[in-house]
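SEQUENCE-TO-STRUCTURE ENTRY
===========================
Question of interest: how does this chain fold, as expressed in backbone structure tokens?
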Amino acid sequence: MQLKQYYLGCLSHASYLIADPRTKLAAIVDPQRDIQQYLDDLSEGGYTLKYVFLTHFHADFLAGHIELRNRAAARIVMGSRAEAEFEFTAADEGQVFELGDVQIKIMETPGHTPEGISLLVFDRTENATAPQAVLTGDTLFIGDVGRPDLLASIGVTADELAEMLYHSVQRLRDLPDATLVYPAHGAGSMCGKSLSQETVSTIGEQKKFNYALQPMSLDDFKRLVTADQPEAPDYFVYDAIKNRQERPDLDATLSSSLRPLAWKQVLDLQSQGAQVLDVRDAVDFEGAHVAGSINIGLNGKYATWCGTVLNHEQPIVVIAEPGSEEEAVMRLGRIGFDNVAGYLDGGLRALESHPEHLRSIQRITAVALADQLNAAQPPLLLDVRAEQERRSAYIEGSRSIPLPQLMDRMNELPEDRTIAVHCQGGYRSAIACSLLARAGREDLLDVVGGFKAWTASKLPTQGDAPTCESEAACGTAG
């Protein structure tokens, strides 16, 4: 049997190819929307794609089931409780899908969503009675379980889902200890709170180290899995609905979105309400950018923060380094943001002779900021990290507004003071500064390197020592 994992770091998403080398039949599980890597591997192995499985309706990305159906004539398979506009096979508990010596058996594991399933994978050349692996979707992660509180499923409460999840986890716990566990997400995903950096484990290891697989009552389980979950982006509900729909595939989206625009067209679209998205690194954006544009750099949790900050109904115009436009648009397509009107032809250099349309944001080091905070008229220090990060440690006197809440809470910030913004490492603070600048704030400072730079400079903090070695470990997505 061939079982290959594809890991997409920017979305902390894992998808899978399962193939039988004898019959040359294959299945893809939880594919991302850009499917060329799967097609390349199928072609290289001489495989025919028979099935594309969705373990559930994903909320954090648009899955590639429609694309694989259109390009490879694959049959879409989901759990029996799923309801969708497109044609699919509704698989019941215990139903087996044959690839030859390889079998895929359905195990209904609701809890993260009502329709959730896990896939037991058997290689009959090795063992016909014990599964070699289980693909758990968002039911069981390495070190965690799927959260039941996303409310992406209309008509089912978080309490009802938590009870379903409890029983599903118990069933997975009863699998043989040697069974390999392959989840749909890893560290940094908002679908759980303490996902491991590891992307594969075993049932035996999870029984030892996963808090959710320890013996406990239903009530204790509910309290544990719902406590301290990261704030879910607004686009999750949108994507969960889109994944149920018959929709255009990614190729169709890219053909209409990858349209070069002259700088005057960009400004006209902006004046009509379009969102101007600058995907360059923060240092380049803050050196010079189009007035009113939003900075979300490609070198970070780009898709997640685009889904958090941008509106999926208003047109988007992309500003990128020449050659990066397609990546920026494609990664928006991964989360179902197909509302791109085009990109600035030639990048920001198209506006070199029109400085009246450009703005800049000042950057400041942690040491220089410390000096300013001790001045007679210090800046207001704004911490845009998540609440669980701030509970670990924070800078005395700073004000906390997590980035997802910033647009709704700007009126809490004084208009007569300079605002210095920091996050954990500098990525989110650049987004925050661009949003503040778009709202008309001019006296802004972006703290280079964020809280990490502050602590590395041996400057004082309040609270406990930092417990999150990375933003991904805190579930903050960048």
Q: What stands out?
A: Residues 255 and 326 are 10 Å apart (CA to CA).
